């Protein structure tokens, strides 16, 4: 059964171009029953959002910038998030922002037992990323959008530029996670590996490295060995992995 999610978007801090892809991504994790975007709608910079809000049933919340240099949008989002938390209408939150000001909010929501998903750009500061249960980069959604449309040579090049090269740091993280879960023969169930990787590093996502799923990413790294086993309870094979 889907969990109900509150989606709170920092309109001052997030580009509007991939809102459709963003909402499709959020739907994978739950039912977005509350969808709000915060910003000063008198500001021409937010004009690109207006049609998208109707198409995606997102409610705009007007927040005037009362003082220069102070972000009133952050305060409005935080106050609303706490009101929603105490209403007991949702089981999780999706905070869409690249702003580290929401770090304490994410921490507080998780302390209250909420599942917290963050979505933002790759420039998002690490404290906000690690405060979430899962953090998804908007750049990944951009890549997926380009894949589903007819690609020009330029868009393919842009997509390649947006894909990270996996480093020794991530390989060591995967290896240590396999070791944490391995049986006496060194094998670990890949589903458990993926879950623990997410807990250790909320922004770990195979799509960051150009792979739609964790299995092909693991297969592409020579440090690991994969074993596909029959599943007596279903038609999909069980995938196990171990360090070479």
UniProtKB/TrEMBL annotation:
Lineage here is: Bacteria, Pseudomonadati, Bacteroidota, Flavobacteriia, Flavobacteriales
Q: Which GO terms describe its molecular function?
A: RNA nuclease activity
InterPro entries registered for this protein in UniProt: LOTUS-like (IPR041966), NYN (IPR021139), OST-HTH/LOTUS_dom (IPR025605)
Q: Ranges for the HTH OST-type domain?
A: 166-243
**Protein name per Swiss-Prot or TrEMBL:** OST-HTH/LOTUS domain-containing protein
């Amino acid at each position: 059964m889907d969990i109900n999610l509150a989606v709170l978007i920092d309109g001052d801090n997030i580009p509007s171009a991939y809102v459709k892809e963003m909402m499709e991504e959020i739907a994978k994790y739950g039912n977005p029953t509350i969808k709000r975007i915060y910003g000063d709608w008198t500001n021409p910079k937010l004009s690109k959002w207006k049609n998208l809000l109707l198409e995606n049933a997102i409610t705009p919340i007007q927040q005037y910038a009362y003082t220069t240099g102070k972000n009133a949008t952050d305060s409005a989002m935080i106050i609303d998030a706490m009101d929603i938390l105490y209403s007991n209408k949702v089981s999780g939150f999706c905070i869409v922002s690249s702003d580290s000001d929401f770090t304490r909010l994410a921490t507080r929501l998780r302390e209250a037992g909420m599942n917290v998903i963050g979505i933002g750009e790759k420039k998002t500061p690490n404290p906000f990323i690690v405060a979430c249960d899962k953090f998804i980069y908007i750049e990944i959604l951009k890549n997926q959008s380009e894949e589903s449309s007819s690609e020009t040579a330029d868009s393919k090049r842009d997509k390649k530029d947006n894909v990270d090269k996996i480093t020794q740091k991530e390989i060591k993280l995967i290896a240590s996670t396999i070791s944490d879960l391995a049986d006496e023969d060194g094998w670990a169930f890949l589903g458990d590996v993926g879950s623990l990787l997410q807990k250790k590093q909320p922004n770990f996502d195979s799509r960051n490295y150009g792979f739609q799923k964790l299995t092909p990413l693991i297969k592409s790294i020579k440090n690991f060995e994969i074993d596909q086993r029959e599943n007596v309870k279903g038609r999909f094979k069980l995938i196990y992995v171990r360090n070479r």
